[in-house]
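[User] At your convenience, examine this fold.
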Amino acid sequence: MNRRGGCSGAPPRALRPDPTSPRKPGEALYEAVRYLLATYQSRDRERACYSDISISECHALEQVVGTGGCSVNDLASALRLDKSTASRIAASLVEKGYLKRSGRPDDRRAVKITPTATGRALEACIKREIVARQRRALEGFSSPLRDELPRALRALADSAARPSSPSDK
């Protein structure tokens, strides 16, 4: 039990799909993705993300480190957030010392956010921990499935990102 009285770890058993129940095309995938997301979102509830940053701040830090720096508008677009939310997240990471703000020479009104050495180190630590967890999660899978899974997940994400057609409704 955690301090809030709930159990951290796996999501409620009701979310786990029953592989034996008959489904229409797409339903099994829907249930599996829903279960996967619920499982990932319910881990480590006592620890917001890593160190002293929230999950949203973690995503923002990964984005800024990955690009080497960007504007708040670019960050908002990449994370699919509104500008005010991205600005608030960036300000929090600046305050914590993980990002720094600097003027852009091409536009004095614009501000570029870049990672600090501390921010890059934290992002690298977070990535190492996540990769280690993923490696452990894949240990029970066959080698061909371990190789195919990242490609299939990227293809699924790409497909989900495309606008739906009228026939999908």
